[in-house]
Each structure stands twice: as structure tokens, then as C-alpha cells.
Amino acid sequence: MSKELLSKSITELAGLIESKAVSPVEATEALLDHAQALNGEINAYISFRPEEAMAEAKVAEAEIAAGNYRGPLHGVPMAIKDNIYVGGEVTTMASKIHGNFVAEKDATVIAKLREAGMVLTGKLNMHEYAWGIDNNSPHFGPVKNPWDLEKVPGGSSGGSGAAVAANMTFGTLGTDTAGSIRIPSAACGIVGLKPTHGRVSKAGCFPLAWSLDHIGPMTKTVDDAAAMLQAIAGFDAKDPTSANAPVGNYTGNLSGDVKGMVIGVEEAYFFKDVDSGIEAIVRDQIDALVQRGAILKKIQIPTLRYSEWAELATSLSEASAIHHRDLQTRPEDFGADIRFLFELGELFSSVEYLQAQQIRRQLKGDFRAALGEVDVIIAPTLPVMAPSIGSSEADLNGKKVDLIDSFIRFTGPSNLTGLPALTVPAGLNGGMPVGLQIIGRAFDEATILNVGRAVELTVPLGDAKPDAVEARV
């Protein structure tokens, strides 16, 4: 029963918990046993909290037995990325410098998940300070992709992506500054949502780059992502970037009906220099949407050609400002890759940073104009497949290309613009998952979730399961 239970989505488990067919205690015990047993292979968790989790599960069980069911997250066990604060407990940021940092209070998103009844099982591995995309940590070891233990899971939320894919958590939250939710979600074959900037509070999350950071759900299904967003969305005065915008009904419009919807495709940027297998899978999914009544429209977003430089100039400069003191006083305590990036960030001039913001403003205008003509924009999430652990390069149709530049190329523009972006599994390429990215209008997460549901209805991964999960079935 436990293996079957662990394969459930959040919404499937919620139905079992609400009907009392499964108790939060049973679900939490099964998850902890599985995650602890598998963590030696995957290395998705930095830390477990079994005693605290079981105590929380017992409270949830008693509340539900008394008729006080709170909703779809009540009694659901899940782990959280280790740069999101849990009050009174260590939050490492997968670093040496903050290896013993104890937050005073829960992050706002943790407080909201607790209010929804979540059971917290532990903290998930990540790339140090969330600034990297392979999750090969010098301090906590590499996270391995459950589909192929020799491959990277993507990052920086690599532990989050791997844990969901390997049934080591029912769902989780990641953070995303240049793609750190969507990159590992695509590489690990799960759903990842970067909400609109300001939709979800970042209070209590260690920053990477203030103006680019987002928090969002990483889950097995679109329904689960919608349920998690419903719980964490909303204005928060503790976050100066929080937007006081109405929260939509994310779970109520997931029919997958796309009839009459206009889908934008930007060929010049989002379909240039793409792995041929990835491109074919994404185009097939676009064709399937058209067959279901969607309308295809080609669009142009000219400023995209400058977006990679603007993203790096912004993220590197802001990240280096955050870590400037430690970089001056204890540089040897950073991992070598992170130290190099922070040192690189100190080389940008104020003129270059401001030029990047001018590009950013123009890019926002271009996207606004394009999204005035179409409902969503669809693109590959990643242009290349996940390489082997330890590689700094990826393969692009037989040519070696830089891994970081490639992995953030299609995800970074949505951080610069702040627009919501969702990745969903679209198929398998050489036995590894491929992600399809859906970009929408500001604060219109409901639409991109519904389009994601339409893709999901094609059952793009079939019955395939990650190798690490198959080995335990």
C-alpha cells in the first residue's frame, strides 16, 4: 500500500485523507520511510525532521477526525527547499557560511502552508545560495536525477525536483531567479510554476537577486500546482515587492479546454538552437493543442536578443551586492563556482546595470504587446537535455555548449519581465523528460495552468517512471 500511496498526487492523497481512507500519520510515516531509504541514492534532502513531522501529522489527524478539515493540503507531508526559513530550525542555503543559521520565524509561505495544514518532513538540497543550475554542491554533495542517476537534476531547486519525481515528497516549493523552479522541473519530469512577480511573498526566503526572485510550487500535476498556489498567493506587507492584486481561483478552471485560445510562438528566439528531439516534442504538443481548437499565431519579441545579457547583468550584480561582505572577508568558504560568479558580478559597472534595466523595460513592453495579441506563449523550457553530473557543458545537436547559458536561455526572460511561467512534461527524449513552457499575462496564472492541464491530458510521459522509482516498485 505504501508504494501505491507514495505515487499519489497531492489532490489524490487529499481525497483519501478527507474521506479518512488514509490518515496523515500513515502518509507521513510512509513518505519518511521511503525518502530516508532513497536519500543515499538521490541526495535530495539536506535534513529530515521525523519527530516533528510525525507530531504535526498526529495533530492534523486529530483535527480531521474532529471535523475540522482545512482543505487539500491538510495532513499532506512535504519537504521544502533549504533557503526558505522554518522558525527555530536550521536553514543552510546549502552553504558553509550559513551552515548553522537558525531563522527566528517561519517564512510567509511556510506560515501559509502550515495554516493550510501541511506536514513538514524536512529541507531539500539545492545549489549553494540558489546560484547554479546543476545542484552539484561542494558542501552537501550532488543531487542525482531520478530518471538517470548519472545526470544532473537541474537547479538551483534540484533537490526539490528530484524529491517530487522520486516520490520523496508529495509536492514542494522552489525558488526561481533565472529558471530555478522550471529548469529542475523540466529535467525531472514534473510541473513547476513561477508565479507573477509579487504574487507570492518572498519574506523569509534568503535572496539571490531581489528584483528577480520568485517562490512557487513544484508538483506531480497541474492540479497540485494550482492547489499549492491557492494556499500561498496573496499580498504580504513584509515583502516590499509583494503586489496587492486579487488572488484568483486557480483550482476551479482546470478543464483543459483551449478552444478559441490563441497560442503565440516566437520562432526567432525560443526555437533557435534547440535540441532536435526537444523541438519535435514541443511542436507536436502545440499541434495537439491546435487540433483541440487552439489558434496558432506567430509573434515577434525583438528585445529577447538582449535578454541573456540583461538577466546576467542584473542577477550577478544583485547577488554580489548581497554577498559582498562575505566575499571580502571569507571568500574561501564559498564553493569555487559560486565564488567565481559573485566575483564576476562585482565587475559590472553602475552604467551596465542601468543599461540592463533599460533593456528590461523594453522587454516588458515587447511581451505586453505580444500578449495583447495572444493568450499565452509556448516554448521549450530547456533547449538542451540534462548532461552528466560534473559537466559544465551540454550537447546541442552534436555541438558542446555552455551549460549555464543554455539552461537559463529560455527561462530567464520571465524573471526579467516578472510574467508567470509554467513548465509541464511534454514527452520523453532518449528516455529523459522534456519540458514545455507556457508564459502568460501578469497575474493570469489561471490561464497558463489551464493550458498546462491541456498538455497534461495527452499523458505525455505515458507509463514511464524514473529509474530510481522503477527500481523500488
UniProtKB/TrEMBL annotation:
InterPro entries in alphabetical order: Amidase, Amidase_CS, Amidase_dom, AS_sf
Pfam family, one: Amidase
Molecular function terms, GO-annotated: asparaginyl-tRNA synthase (glutamine-hydrolyzing) activity; glutaminyl-tRNA synthase (glutamine-hydrolyzing) activity; transferase activity
Keyword field: Ligase, Transferase
Region forming the signal peptide: none
Positions of the Amidase domain: 26-449
Annotated EC: 6.3.5.6, 6.3.5.7
Name of this protein: Aspartyl-tRNA(Asn)/glutamyl-tRNA(Gln) amidotransferase subunit A
Organism field: Paeniglutamicibacter cryotolerans
